[in-house]
Amino acid sequence: MSKQTPRKQSARKPSAAKQTTSQEAAAKQADAPQATGRKKTSGTDSGAGSAKAGGGRVPAPAAAPAPETDGSPAKELSRRRLLGTVGAAGAAGLVVGGAGGAAGVAAARDDAPEALTTVGSTRVPFRVAGGGHQAGITTPLQAKGHLVAFDLAPGTDRKAAAALLRRWSRTAEELMAGRAPDADTGVALDAGPSSLTVTFGFGHSFFGRTDLTKRRPAELDPLPDFSADALDPARSNGDLWIQIGADDALVAFHALRALQKDAAGRARLRWQMNGFNRTPGATAHPMTTRNLMGQIDGTNNPKPSDKDFDQRIFVGRDADQAWMRGGSYAVVRRIRMLLDDWEKRSRHDQEKVIGRRKDNGAPLTGGSETTPMRLDANRPDGLPVIPANAHARIAAPESNQGAAMLRRPFSYHDGFREDGAPDAGLLFVCWQADPLRAFTQVQRKLDRGDALSPFLRHEASGLFAVPPAAEPGDYVGQPLLEG
């Protein structure tokens, strides 16, 4: 990712020729709010075993870092020049993937280098003055993600761990602002921040290694075993956890590489998982994403507008461990989908397994995607319209004493297995104030009879305490490590 000054220089200089009337009109359009494809949609069924939070975007609450668009004169000029080149119809195609996009791309190829689009220039703050939540929790889902865990190197004590978190926080702040850190590799040179977020968490084992066991919250106790688990210890847990998300693959990799280099001598890579979501603007209109099973997935996620959202997702002010107040707990699971088996089922059978229609995500009891499920509706033969073991029924808050979690995962595809089956599925990430009352409660019920379970394999797992965002001048986790 380039430094601020070089990136400004990379914007095309204004031509000496006078702009045409149509170009001027397009440039004026650039001054108005632009659609980026990052529209708000509803969330997802809360089940721990299904696929992801909606590829429609999860709106951020007021306390969360809000995405920004770099409004510097050079970038605004670049954006106007781009819009002026492709024309109004082409610009709309670039933003929302609609008609006219092909013409815009053709024009762009003939007129390189390209300026930053609104997708590339969107910036999410790393630090939050006065407290707040880390970015990457309620931030809209990004197109590319990396999940990575580290173990502290032998001899790394509390002081050394603090130095690492200070260095990581400084690097993350630079990258999320679209600036290059020290000794930059140039991987993302010329790219904007592209909604990059970097989120840090602490695993159960971190506290013993840093002599902080008295400050380890009870909510971080290991998750129970589930009968469907086939977990690989080498790809589970870890002392430290980082979630990286961006709308550009090179920007995401750049952040991953920079943070890995920062860890040298202090922490060693334990595992890494790479994922993806739908790219902003890939559909003709904003909509909830589909998972790798082809189901619309993202309908019943808690929404920041819900009156009890903060209570469910973020640690309250009365928490025993003060350093976690305003933070959240992330459950991470690698869930392989048995796609060959799933795709052999008829569409009718698939819909009965999920409890929702495949074409529009509506519950089997009728309506649209956002219509509430009528769990008490029966067919003429007396059987429930939504089967008793349907995933949507079992995972619903109504079936779990109101338990809910904010699910924000990525899909993954890691090639093919020896039998030719795709090694693909879900990098499940969910957020909650108390994992025992949210993830664990729902997963226990799913474990006892979810119709979707035969098509899933839970292969890795982790639980991490994610503290609040760093305030200006501080680093993530400072109240824990220096309190």
Quick structural gist:
By secondary structure, this protein is an alpha+beta fold.
Write up what this structure looks like.
This protein has 483 residues and is of the alpha+beta class. 27% of the residues lie in helices and 16% in strands. The strands form two sheets. Strands 3, 4, 5, 6, 7, 8, 9, 10 and 11 form a nine-stranded antiparallel β-sheet that branches. Strand 9 and strand 10 form a beta hairpin. The longest helix is centred in the first third of the chain and has 24 residues, at 73-96. It is globular, with a radius of gyration of 23 Å. Mean pLDDT is 81; it is low at 1-44, 46-64 and 70-113.
Mean pLDDT: 81
Number of continuous helical runs: 14
Question: Order of SSEs, N→C?
Answer: HHEHHHEEHEHEHEHEHHHEEEHEH
Query: Could you tell me the radius of gyration in angstroms?
Result: 23 Å
What's the number of extended β-strand segments? 11
Give the helix proportion (percent range): 25-40%
Query: Span between N and C termini?
Result: 34 Å
- Biggest β-sheet strands, sense, barrel: 9 strands, antiparallel
What spatial form do the alpha-carbon principal axes imply?
A: globular
Low-confidence stretches: 1-44, 46-64, 70-113
The portion of residues forming beta strands comes to 15-25%
Question: What features would you highlight for this structure?
Answer:
483 residues, alpha+beta, nine-stranded antiparallel β-sheet, two-stranded antiparallel sheet, 27% helix, disordered N terminus
Sequence-ordered SSE layout with sheet pairings:
Blueprint (H helix, E strand, L loop, with lengths): L3 H7 L10 H11 L36 E2 L3 H24 L4 H9 L8 H4 E2 L20 E9 L5 H19 L20 E7 H6 L30 E7 L2 H14 L4 E10 L32 H5 L14 E10 L1 H6 L2 H8 L36 H5 L10 E2 L2 E7 L5 E11 L6 H9 L8 E11 L11 H5 L1
Antiparallel strand pairs: 1-2, 3-5, 3-6, 4-5, 4-11, 7-10, 7-11, 8-10, 9-10
Helix pairs in contact: 2-3, 3-4, 6-8
